[in-house]
Specification:
about 0% strand
Amino acid sequence: MKDKINKFLEVEDRVFRAPYNFLKEKGIIDKVKEIKTRFVEIYAKDEEIPYGGNQMFFGDD
C-alpha cells in the first residue's frame, strides 16, 4: 500500500510541476523574477520621498 501511495505522489508531483518546469525552461520564470526585482527597487525609491500634502484640500498640507 505504501508503494502505491509513493507512486501516486511521484505522479502528482510531476503533473503539478510540469507547467512550472515548462515556463522555467522557456526562461519566463527568470524574467518575471527580474521584473519583480525592478519594481521593488522602483517602489523602494518612492518610499523615501516625503509626503508634502495635497494643496487642493484644506488641512492636508
